[in-house]
Amino acid sequence: MTQNPYLWLIPTLPLAGAAINGFLGRRSSKRAVTTVALTFPGLSFVLALKIALGFSSAAAPYVFNLAHWIRSGSLGLPNFFTADFAFYLDQLSLVMLLVVTGVGFLIHIYSVGYMSDDPSYYRFFTYLNLFMFFMLTLILANNYLMMFVGWEGVGLASYLLIGFWFTKDSAASAGKKAFIVNRIGDFGFLIGLFLIIQHFGSLNFTDVFAKVEPLAAETSGAGLLTAIGILLMVGACGKSAQIPLYVWLPDAMEGPTPVSALIHAATMVTAGVYMVARSHVIFERAPIALTVVAVIGTLTALFAATIGITQTDIKKVLAYSTVSQLGYMFLACGAGAFSAGIFHLMTHAFFKGLLFLGAGSVIHAVGGEQDMRKMGGLKTYIPVTFSTMLIATLAISGIPPLAGFWSKDEILWKAYQASWVYWLIGAITALITSFYMFRLLFMTFWGDYKGIQVDDHGHAHSAHGDHGHGEPHESPMFMLVPLIILAVLSAVGGFVGIHHGFEHFLEPVFGSEFPKTITEASGNTEWVLMGISVLFAFAGLILAYVLYVSKPYLPEKIAASLNGFYDVVLNKYYVDEIYAKIFVKPLVDGSTKILWQGVDRKVIDDNVNSAADGARHVSDEVRHMQSGNVRSYAGWIASGAAAVIAYMIWWGMR
Amino acid sequence: MISVHLILFLAFGAVCVAGAVNLLVQRHPINSALSLIAVMAALAGEYLLLGAEFVAALQVIVYAGAIMVLFVFVIMLLNAGVEERTQGSRVAILFGVPGMLIGSVLVAWVVLRHSGTGDVAIGALPGPPKTIGDMLFHEFLLPFEITSILILVAIMGAVVLASKPPSSEVGGPAQKVKD
Amino acid sequence: MVPLSYYLVLSGILFACGVTGFLIKRNIIAIFMSIELMLNGVNLSFVAFAAHWHVLAGQIFVFFVMVVAAAEAAVGLAIIIAIYRTRETLNIDQVNLLKL
After folding, report:
1. Is residue B64 less than 8 Å (CB to CB) from chain C?
2. Which end of chain C is more exposed for a tag (fewer CB within 10 A), N or C?
């Protein structure tokens, strides 16, 4: 256990950066802010690398206790509860750590270029560093309570960053929506935590899992572990944007693109997956909960993918794509293949992060336009962005030998072992994924440039500086270098999965002698399934090519023929409107009519006012005592004296 | 039992009460001042009956001879006239006099009922100036000195308050009282 | 031999007359004189008690009361003069600047 005495530095360094930039950034030069903003996460990344290189599987898990936090009750009594500021390092958190610090650092570098013309430059990096701190706390936490601190903290950072351009109404509302919907999930999460405390007396991972391990699986019906599992999943639905709490993620695209890349693709939304994976001990003993997880994941994957086909805003397509891919991760966890889920998490961080950064580069190139119908033919103007995005699109579509293929295939294989229904829906979703991703690629980079040649960028999307060019231009080096690095990772990142290498690495975490309730299938089936998924990937590519390159008039005809159904999908199945009608409007109405006008005005205000009025009336009567007339004062004095004398006489005579 | 002491006491007492009532009844303040002088003179007689010679002398010299003279001077200076009857004063008389009457009768009745306090002889406690002077300069030295300061302050205050305010044409310091 | 209570009753009568005058008179100077009457009544009671209990301090106290009364009368009359200068009246109901 002597490995990493400075494990605690990894989260706190970005916190220091956030504090410095937060307090001093307003008056500092941009160079100083940049230096601080890049140094601290960079140091975290270096430390993470150092830990990774010195990591030995034998010594894991490593717990480093920084300080006491909660000490309640006393040992031996049933109300004993402790929680500490402690950090926990094992293979799972190591993987997450590398992903978060690595991708996070790259996005920080990218943001230097992207946000260079923004007037609130320092504030952006303050929030970004703050986010890193909370995310790292979440990952490295030793107990559910600290994880929850990180959980809430990333929600806060997400709110701050989504609403970064808070003067814009839609951005401020999107931030609120994200936070509130997250909160709904957190409610479920908290109740799950309460159940854990009540029945296992602790929130430490080691303690809880040690207590859960000997319990039998709840195959015959729902029990305590099922309840805990489902409640934890509710929390994950909120944070990781699954049905029914995914609605905040598309709106979250109001934030700057690096935010979308970091938080809503690579890291924060994966917190739910991480949490489920971390709690696998509980889930494995609650098959119903696992099924719930898998079903939600599958449905979300398909649902979001269908919406992604119709969207025209480049970032919205990627948002729905993220929701869909997260569904894959939950599908994997629900099928019992937690390491596959984490594998896909890692590769997804690479290619989705790259896609978002690339989209940001595209948006920067065309001067703020985000509608793909106004783009086109950009591959000649921005070749570096194009090539990196091409690699990312190939990766996400699952075309070998890029990273996405390995992870997605692993998931589909394990899903098939759980149930062929999961596999079928997963495969169809893969087809749709490939289709809409290549649709994005073709609409953006092929054909003729449909954008307006503008001299000034009169748009409301971003503070994108005033280079008054007429035609799209490539991004600066700060933005391109991370793209290239991520492209390389997307290409080769999947190779760790060959021969189940990744799975073996995570085996000490997930592996157990607990019998899995899945049916083993023969190895040949695996090859067949692999072939089918590759076929689907290419089918999607070809379909997109046909519809958007060779016969660009076709999409409209198809949409017209599908008419009503197309409209529904285009409007995201009207989910937001349904929520507004069922949940939001009654709440707001109830709040207005009952709580505001009824309670606040009539009860509270009236009482306070009548108290004040009463005081006024009393003083109105009493003021006659102070008439300014000396004789009336004399009269009062005499009456008072008479009263006292009378009392004394009466008392003396008793 | 009837004794000289009692008769003298009643005589002086009658003068006191008559003067006090007259003070209330008279409408011109000068009449009230004169009746007050009568009260004080009668009170001096009462003090003598109790043997307080020095106090009686002081009563006449200081109270009747200085303070009341001051009052009379001020009345004449300000040319105070007769009071008019107004609504408020009628109300005050209506309520005040009976109230006081009842109150004082009550107190008197209580005092007389519980009069197991004993008698006071004529000239009961002689207070010659020598004895009083002794006490003043020994036990009561501090209050004595303080009252002297008090008088000093009162003199200065009276002078300042009653002086004419500085005239606005002359921009110099405030003028002293000229009259 | 006069009972002490007779002296006290007389003192009380004088005091009551003083209070009554204080309440019903409108001339400021008359009010002041009522106050002096009250003080005299109290002086009488002091001396009576001093004689009854053979404590000379009672008479000393009367001495001090007189001194203070003199000082108070001087200052009070000076104030009355000052008020008369500004208000041209000696009616106490007109001195009502303390009214809200």
Report:
1. no
2. C
